[in-house]
Amino acid sequence: MAGPQVEVDGSIMEGGGQILRVSTSLSCLLGLPLRVQKIRAGRSTPGLSSGAWQSTIKVLTGPQHLSGLEMIRDLCDGQLERAEIGSTEITFTPEKIKGGIHTADTKTAGSVCLLMQVSMPCVLFAASSSELHLKGGTNAEMAPQIDYTVMVFKPIVEKFGFKFNCDIKTRGYYPKGGGEVIVRVSPVKQLNPINLTDRGYVTKIYGRAFVAGVLPFKVAKDMAAAAVRCIRKEIRDLYVNIQPVQEPKDQAFGNGSGIIIIAETSTGCLFAGSSLGKRGVNADKVGIEAAEMLLANLRHGGTVDEYLQDQLIVFMALANGVSRIKTGPVTLHTQTAIHFAEQIAKAKFIVKKSEDEEDASKDTYIIECQGIGMTNTNL
Protein backbone atom coordinates (compact mmCIF):
# COMPACT_ATOMS: atom_id res chain seq x y z
CA MET A 1 0.00 0.00 0.00
CA ALA A 2 2.64 2.50 1.08
CA GLY A 3 4.52 4.58 -1.47
CA PRO A 4 7.76 6.53 -0.90
CA GLN A 5 7.84 8.73 2.21
CA VAL A 6 6.88 12.34 1.62
CA GLU A 7 9.09 14.93 3.36
CA VAL A 8 7.32 18.14 4.38
CA ASP A 9 8.88 21.31 5.77
CA GLY A 10 6.43 22.55 8.42
CA SER A 11 8.06 25.97 8.70
CA ILE A 12 7.42 27.39 5.23
CA MET A 13 4.59 29.68 4.07
CA GLU A 14 1.72 29.61 6.58
CA GLY A 15 4.00 27.58 8.85
CA GLY A 16 1.25 26.41 11.18
CA GLY A 17 -1.52 23.91 11.68
CA GLN A 18 -2.72 24.18 8.14
CA ILE A 19 0.37 22.43 6.78
CA LEU A 20 -0.33 19.55 9.14
CA ARG A 21 -4.01 19.41 8.12
CA VAL A 22 -3.38 19.42 4.38
CA SER A 23 -0.38 17.09 4.41
CA THR A 24 -1.84 14.44 6.74
CA SER A 25 -5.17 14.43 4.85
CA LEU A 26 -3.40 13.91 1.52
CA SER A 27 -0.99 11.35 2.99
CA CYS A 28 -3.97 9.39 4.35
CA LEU A 29 -5.87 9.57 1.05
CA LEU A 30 -2.93 8.61 -1.15
CA GLY A 31 -1.45 6.00 1.18
CA LEU A 32 1.87 7.85 1.34
CA PRO A 33 4.00 7.75 4.51
CA LEU A 34 4.69 11.29 5.70
CA ARG A 35 7.30 13.08 7.73
CA VAL A 36 6.68 16.69 8.74
CA GLN A 37 9.64 18.54 10.26
CA LYS A 38 10.08 22.01 11.82
CA ILE A 39 6.42 22.14 12.85
CA ARG A 40 5.31 25.69 13.60
CA ALA A 41 8.96 26.83 13.55
CA GLY A 42 7.76 30.28 12.56
CA ARG A 43 5.43 30.59 15.55
CA SER A 44 6.05 32.06 18.98
CA THR A 45 5.70 28.55 20.48
CA PRO A 46 7.24 26.01 18.12
CA GLY A 47 5.97 22.46 18.07
CA LEU A 48 2.56 20.84 18.44
CA SER A 49 0.45 22.83 20.84
CA SER A 50 -2.26 21.66 23.17
CA GLY A 51 -4.18 24.76 23.99
CA ALA A 52 -2.03 27.62 25.18
CA TRP A 53 -4.12 30.46 23.80
CA GLN A 54 -1.66 33.16 22.81
CA SER A 55 -2.90 36.65 22.23
CA THR A 56 -0.87 37.17 19.07
CA ILE A 57 -2.96 36.55 15.99
CA LYS A 58 0.03 34.87 14.30
CA VAL A 59 -0.17 31.81 16.52
CA LEU A 60 -2.56 29.13 15.43
CA THR A 61 -3.97 28.09 18.77
CA GLY A 62 -3.73 24.41 18.45
CA PRO A 63 -5.35 21.90 20.73
CA GLN A 64 -6.89 20.80 17.47
CA HIS A 65 -3.52 19.89 15.92
CA LEU A 66 -2.97 16.83 18.00
CA SER A 67 -6.58 15.68 18.02
CA GLY A 68 -6.74 16.23 14.24
CA LEU A 69 -3.65 14.08 13.68
CA GLU A 70 -4.95 11.38 16.02
CA MET A 71 -8.29 11.41 14.22
CA ILE A 72 -6.66 10.85 10.81
CA ARG A 73 -4.58 8.05 12.32
CA ASP A 74 -7.75 6.40 13.67
CA LEU A 75 -9.65 6.85 10.38
CA CYS A 76 -7.12 4.67 8.61
CA ASP A 77 -5.60 2.52 11.38
CA GLY A 78 -2.33 4.29 10.67
CA GLN A 79 0.74 4.81 12.81
CA LEU A 80 1.66 8.19 14.21
CA GLU A 81 5.04 8.76 15.82
CA ARG A 82 6.42 11.64 17.89
CA ALA A 83 3.00 13.30 18.00
CA GLU A 84 2.97 14.89 21.40
CA ILE A 85 2.61 18.44 22.67
CA GLY A 86 5.70 20.48 21.81
CA SER A 87 6.95 18.04 19.18
CA THR A 88 8.50 19.74 16.13
CA GLU A 89 8.43 16.62 13.96
CA ILE A 90 5.91 13.85 13.27
CA THR A 91 5.90 10.75 11.09
CA PHE A 92 2.68 9.21 9.86
CA THR A 93 2.16 5.87 8.10
CA PRO A 94 -1.38 5.52 6.74
CA GLU A 95 -3.29 2.32 6.05
CA LYS A 96 -6.72 1.76 4.45
CA ILE A 97 -9.41 4.36 5.26
CA LYS A 98 -12.36 2.79 7.02
CA GLY A 99 -15.83 4.14 7.75
CA GLY A 100 -17.75 3.77 10.99
CA ILE A 101 -17.92 5.93 14.11
CA HIS A 102 -14.91 8.06 15.05
CA THR A 103 -14.53 10.50 17.92
CA ALA A 104 -12.10 13.41 18.21
CA ASP A 105 -12.00 15.56 21.33
CA THR A 106 -9.77 18.62 21.65
CA LYS A 107 -10.68 18.73 25.40
CA THR A 108 -10.49 22.53 25.09
CA ALA A 109 -12.01 25.19 22.85
CA GLY A 110 -9.95 23.83 19.94
CA SER A 111 -12.06 24.10 16.82
CA VAL A 112 -14.39 21.29 15.73
CA CYS A 113 -14.48 22.99 12.31
CA LEU A 114 -10.75 22.43 11.84
CA LEU A 115 -11.22 18.78 12.85
CA MET A 116 -13.88 18.55 10.15
CA GLN A 117 -11.58 20.19 7.60
CA VAL A 118 -8.85 17.60 8.13
CA SER A 119 -11.14 14.55 8.16
CA MET A 120 -13.78 15.34 5.51
CA PRO A 121 -11.69 14.59 2.38
CA CYS A 122 -10.54 11.29 3.91
CA VAL A 123 -13.94 9.89 4.86
CA LEU A 124 -15.25 10.57 1.34
CA PHE A 125 -12.88 7.83 0.16
CA ALA A 126 -13.62 5.38 2.99
CA ALA A 127 -14.98 1.88 2.48
CA SER A 128 -18.34 2.73 4.09
CA SER A 129 -20.30 5.59 5.69
CA SER A 130 -18.73 7.52 8.55
CA GLU A 131 -20.04 9.25 11.63
CA LEU A 132 -17.64 11.75 13.17
CA HIS A 133 -18.20 12.91 16.75
CA LEU A 134 -16.19 16.13 17.05
CA LYS A 135 -15.80 17.81 20.43
CA GLY A 136 -14.35 21.20 21.33
CA GLY A 137 -15.17 24.79 20.38
CA THR A 138 -17.93 25.38 17.82
CA ASN A 139 -17.72 29.16 17.85
CA ALA A 140 -14.09 29.81 18.76
CA GLU A 141 -11.41 32.27 17.69
CA MET A 142 -8.92 31.66 14.87
CA ALA A 143 -11.14 29.18 13.03
CA PRO A 144 -14.42 29.17 11.12
CA GLN A 145 -17.55 29.23 13.28
CA ILE A 146 -19.73 26.11 12.96
CA ASP A 147 -22.41 28.35 11.44
CA TYR A 148 -19.99 29.24 8.65
CA THR A 149 -19.29 25.55 8.06
CA VAL A 150 -23.02 24.77 7.81
CA MET A 151 -24.20 27.91 5.99
CA VAL A 152 -21.31 28.56 3.56
CA PHE A 153 -18.80 25.69 3.36
CA LYS A 154 -21.41 22.89 3.18
CA PRO A 155 -23.56 24.08 0.24
CA ILE A 156 -20.48 25.03 -1.82
CA VAL A 157 -18.34 21.96 -1.13
CA GLU A 158 -21.33 19.73 -1.93
CA LYS A 159 -20.99 20.96 -5.54
CA PHE A 160 -18.10 18.48 -5.80
CA GLY A 161 -20.83 15.82 -5.86
CA PHE A 162 -21.34 14.58 -2.31
CA LYS A 163 -23.62 15.34 0.63
CA PHE A 164 -22.94 15.42 4.35
CA ASN A 165 -25.02 16.03 7.42
CA CYS A 166 -23.85 18.21 10.31
CA ASP A 167 -25.82 18.00 13.55
CA ILE A 168 -24.88 20.61 16.17
CA LYS A 169 -25.55 18.89 19.51
CA THR A 170 -23.97 21.46 21.83
CA ARG A 171 -22.21 24.73 21.19
CA GLY A 172 -18.91 25.39 22.95
CA TYR A 173 -16.97 28.64 23.36
CA TYR A 174 -13.55 29.89 24.39
CA PRO A 175 -12.02 29.01 26.84
CA LYS A 176 -13.99 25.95 27.99
CA GLY A 177 -15.00 24.32 24.73
CA GLY A 178 -17.46 21.55 25.53
CA GLY A 179 -19.25 21.71 22.18
CA GLU A 180 -20.12 18.68 20.07
CA VAL A 181 -21.14 18.19 16.47
CA ILE A 182 -21.93 14.93 14.70
CA VAL A 183 -21.01 14.75 11.02
CA ARG A 184 -22.37 11.96 8.82
CA VAL A 185 -20.76 11.33 5.43
CA SER A 186 -21.29 8.66 2.77
CA PRO A 187 -18.33 7.75 0.57
CA VAL A 188 -18.13 8.65 -3.14
CA LYS A 189 -16.50 6.97 -6.15
CA GLN A 190 -14.97 10.24 -7.40
CA LEU A 191 -15.35 13.99 -6.89
CA ASN A 192 -16.68 16.17 -9.70
CA PRO A 193 -14.73 19.31 -10.63
CA ILE A 194 -16.40 22.66 -9.90
CA ASN A 195 -16.63 25.88 -11.87
CA LEU A 196 -17.34 28.90 -9.67
CA THR A 197 -16.54 31.84 -11.91
CA ASP A 198 -19.87 33.65 -12.28
CA ARG A 199 -20.59 35.73 -9.24
CA GLY A 200 -24.03 37.10 -10.20
CA TYR A 201 -25.48 39.84 -8.01
CA VAL A 202 -26.39 39.84 -4.32
CA THR A 203 -30.00 38.76 -3.80
CA LYS A 204 -30.23 38.42 -0.01
CA ILE A 205 -28.38 39.11 3.20
CA TYR A 206 -29.22 37.23 6.40
CA GLY A 207 -27.58 36.01 9.56
CA ARG A 208 -27.72 35.30 13.25
CA ALA A 209 -26.40 37.15 16.30
CA PHE A 210 -26.20 34.90 19.35
CA VAL A 211 -25.66 34.99 23.08
CA ALA A 212 -25.14 31.94 25.29
CA GLY A 213 -24.89 31.39 29.03
CA VAL A 214 -25.12 34.40 31.30
CA LEU A 215 -24.86 37.07 28.61
CA PRO A 216 -27.96 39.28 28.25
CA PHE A 217 -30.13 38.96 25.13
CA LYS A 218 -29.69 42.70 24.56
CA VAL A 219 -26.11 41.97 23.45
CA ALA A 220 -27.43 39.87 20.53
CA LYS A 221 -29.94 42.56 19.57
CA ASP A 222 -27.26 45.27 19.69
CA MET A 223 -24.83 43.25 17.53
CA ALA A 224 -27.55 42.61 14.95
CA ALA A 225 -28.76 46.24 14.86
CA ALA A 226 -25.23 47.65 14.50
CA ALA A 227 -24.43 45.19 11.68
CA VAL A 228 -27.65 46.07 9.82
CA ARG A 229 -26.90 49.82 10.10
CA CYS A 230 -23.37 49.29 8.77
CA ILE A 231 -24.53 47.23 5.76
CA ARG A 232 -27.35 49.69 4.94
CA LYS A 233 -24.82 52.46 4.38
CA GLU A 234 -23.41 50.52 1.45
CA ILE A 235 -26.29 48.28 0.27
CA ARG A 236 -29.56 50.18 0.44
CA ASP A 237 -31.97 48.16 -1.66
CA LEU A 238 -31.93 44.80 0.17
CA TYR A 239 -33.70 43.70 3.32
CA VAL A 240 -31.05 42.62 5.82
CA ASN A 241 -32.43 39.92 8.10
CA ILE A 242 -30.17 39.23 11.09
CA GLN A 243 -31.94 37.23 13.80
CA PRO A 244 -30.88 37.76 17.42
CA VAL A 245 -30.75 34.35 19.17
CA GLN A 246 -30.53 33.22 22.78
CA GLU A 247 -28.90 29.77 22.61
CA PRO A 248 -30.98 27.28 24.63
CA LYS A 249 -29.31 26.36 27.94
CA ASP A 250 -29.23 22.64 27.14
CA GLN A 251 -27.57 23.26 23.75
CA ALA A 252 -24.70 25.51 24.79
CA PHE A 253 -21.82 25.02 27.22
CA GLY A 254 -20.36 28.10 28.90
CA ASN A 255 -20.74 31.74 27.89
CA GLY A 256 -20.28 33.21 24.46
CA SER A 257 -21.56 35.70 21.91
CA GLY A 258 -21.01 36.39 18.25
CA ILE A 259 -22.51 37.08 14.87
CA ILE A 260 -22.38 35.69 11.35
CA ILE A 261 -23.84 37.43 8.29
CA ILE A 262 -24.23 35.73 4.90
CA ALA A 263 -24.75 37.29 1.48
CA GLU A 264 -26.23 35.08 -1.23
CA THR A 265 -26.03 35.83 -4.94
CA SER A 266 -28.21 35.06 -7.96
CA THR A 267 -25.83 32.28 -9.04
CA GLY A 268 -25.72 30.64 -5.59
CA CYS A 269 -22.43 32.11 -4.38
CA LEU A 270 -22.19 32.63 -0.61
CA PHE A 271 -20.05 35.13 1.30
CA ALA A 272 -19.77 35.70 5.02
CA GLY A 273 -18.58 38.10 7.66
CA SER A 274 -18.40 37.04 11.29
CA SER A 275 -17.08 38.11 14.64
CA LEU A 276 -17.05 36.85 18.23
CA GLY A 277 -17.75 38.85 21.34
CA LYS A 278 -14.86 39.38 23.71
CA ARG A 279 -14.73 40.67 27.23
CA GLY A 280 -14.57 44.45 27.24
CA VAL A 281 -15.58 44.88 23.58
CA ASN A 282 -18.97 46.46 23.12
CA ALA A 283 -21.63 44.66 21.12
CA ASP A 284 -21.91 47.34 18.41
CA LYS A 285 -18.25 46.96 17.59
CA VAL A 286 -18.60 43.17 17.18
CA GLY A 287 -21.58 43.64 14.83
CA ILE A 288 -19.76 46.28 12.78
CA GLU A 289 -16.64 44.12 12.48
CA ALA A 290 -18.69 41.26 10.97
CA ALA A 291 -20.55 43.64 8.62
CA GLU A 292 -17.30 45.22 7.41
CA MET A 293 -15.77 41.80 6.80
CA LEU A 294 -18.78 40.82 4.68
CA LEU A 295 -18.68 44.09 2.71
CA ALA A 296 -14.94 43.65 2.05
CA ASN A 297 -15.63 40.13 0.76
CA LEU A 298 -18.27 41.53 -1.59
CA ARG A 299 -15.99 44.23 -3.05
CA HIS A 300 -13.34 42.02 -4.66
CA GLY A 301 -15.49 40.43 -7.37
CA GLY A 302 -14.65 36.81 -6.47
CA THR A 303 -17.19 33.98 -6.14
CA VAL A 304 -15.88 32.79 -2.75
CA ASP A 305 -14.86 34.68 0.35
CA GLU A 306 -11.35 34.69 1.77
CA TYR A 307 -12.10 31.85 4.21
CA LEU A 308 -13.58 29.44 1.69
CA GLN A 309 -10.66 29.77 -0.76
CA ASP A 310 -8.21 27.51 1.03
CA GLN A 311 -10.89 25.04 2.18
CA LEU A 312 -11.68 24.14 -1.46
CA ILE A 313 -8.10 23.48 -2.61
CA VAL A 314 -7.81 19.85 -1.43
CA PHE A 315 -11.16 18.96 -3.04
CA MET A 316 -10.11 20.62 -6.31
CA ALA A 317 -6.85 18.63 -6.21
CA LEU A 318 -8.73 15.33 -5.80
CA ALA A 319 -11.51 16.00 -8.33
CA ASN A 320 -11.74 14.28 -11.70
CA GLY A 321 -11.17 17.16 -14.14
CA VAL A 322 -10.48 20.89 -14.24
CA SER A 323 -11.92 23.10 -11.47
CA ARG A 324 -11.98 26.88 -11.53
CA ILE A 325 -12.80 29.37 -8.79
CA LYS A 326 -12.72 33.15 -8.95
CA THR A 327 -11.32 34.80 -5.82
CA GLY A 328 -10.21 38.08 -4.35
CA PRO A 329 -6.56 38.36 -3.26
CA VAL A 330 -5.14 34.84 -2.83
CA THR A 331 -4.49 34.28 0.88
CA LEU A 332 -1.37 32.77 2.42
CA HIS A 333 -3.49 29.82 3.61
CA THR A 334 -4.57 29.20 0.00
CA GLN A 335 -1.02 29.49 -1.35
CA THR A 336 0.08 27.00 1.33
CA ALA A 337 -2.70 24.51 0.48
CA ILE A 338 -1.83 24.75 -3.24
CA HIS A 339 1.88 24.18 -2.54
CA PHE A 340 1.25 20.94 -0.62
CA ALA A 341 -1.52 19.72 -2.96
CA GLU A 342 1.05 20.03 -5.77
CA GLN A 343 3.90 18.50 -3.77
CA ILE A 344 1.98 15.55 -2.30
CA ALA A 345 -0.95 14.85 -4.63
CA LYS A 346 0.78 16.05 -7.82
CA ALA A 347 -2.25 18.15 -8.81
CA LYS A 348 -1.51 21.07 -11.16
CA PHE A 349 -2.64 24.58 -10.21
CA ILE A 350 -2.56 27.83 -12.19
CA VAL A 351 -3.32 31.13 -10.45
CA LYS A 352 -3.83 34.11 -12.74
CA LYS A 353 -5.38 37.56 -12.67
CA SER A 354 -9.00 37.55 -13.87
CA GLU A 355 -9.29 38.91 -17.41
CA ASP A 356 -13.04 39.65 -17.17
CA GLU A 357 -13.85 43.28 -17.92
CA GLU A 358 -15.91 43.78 -14.76
CA ASP A 359 -12.85 42.71 -12.72
CA ALA A 360 -10.41 45.08 -14.43
CA SER A 361 -10.29 47.55 -11.55
CA LYS A 362 -10.36 44.85 -8.84
CA ASP A 363 -7.88 42.48 -7.27
CA THR A 364 -9.54 39.36 -8.71
CA TYR A 365 -7.95 36.01 -9.60
CA ILE A 366 -8.82 32.69 -11.18
CA ILE A 367 -7.48 29.58 -9.44
CA GLU A 368 -7.54 26.68 -11.87
CA CYS A 369 -6.68 23.10 -11.00
CA GLN A 370 -6.25 19.93 -13.00
CA GLY A 371 -7.38 17.42 -10.37
CA ILE A 372 -5.86 13.95 -10.05
CA GLY A 373 -9.18 12.09 -10.42
CA MET A 374 -8.84 10.24 -7.11
CA THR A 375 -10.93 7.05 -7.22
CA ASN A 376 -12.42 5.25 -4.23
CA THR A 377 -11.19 1.70 -4.79
CA ASN A 378 -13.45 0.42 -2.01
CA LEU A 379 -16.62 1.10 -4.01
Brief summary:
This protein has 379 residues and is an alpha/beta fold. It has helices at 17-30, 63-75, 112-123, 146-157, 217-234, 283-299, 306-318, 332-345; strands spanning 6-9, 34-37, 79-81, 90-93, 100-105, 130-136, 164-172, 179-185, 195-196, 202-212, 240-246, 252-253, 256-265, 270-276, 322-327, 348-353, 365-370. It folds into 2 domains: 6-196 and 304-372, Alpha-beta prism (UDP-n-acetylglucosamine1-carboxyvinyl-transferase, Chain), CATH 3.65.10.20; 202-300, Dihydrodipicolinate Reductase, domain 2 (2-Layer Sandwich), CATH 3.30.360.20.
Structural features, described:
GO terms for molecular function: ATP binding; RNA-3'-phosphate cyclase activity. One of its GO terms (biological process) is negative regulation of optical nerve axon regeneration. It is an enzyme of class 6 (ligase). Keywords: ATP-binding, Ligase, Nucleotide-binding. The chain is α/β, with parallel strands linked by helices. The protein has 2 domains: 260 residues, UDP-n-acetylglucosamine1-carboxyvinyl-transferase, Chain, CATH 3.65.10; 99 residues, 2-Layer Sandwich (Dihydrodipicolinate Reductase, domain 2), CATH 3.30.360. The strands form 4 sheets. Strands 5-6-8-7-12 form a 5-stranded mixed sheet, covered by helices on one side. A 4-stranded mixed sheet has the order 1-2-4-3, with helices on one face. The chain has a 4-stranded mixed sheet with strand order 9-15-17-16, with helices on one face. A hairpin with a 6-residue loop joins strand 7 and strand 8. It starts with 5 loop residues before the first strand and ends in a 9-residue tail after the last strand.
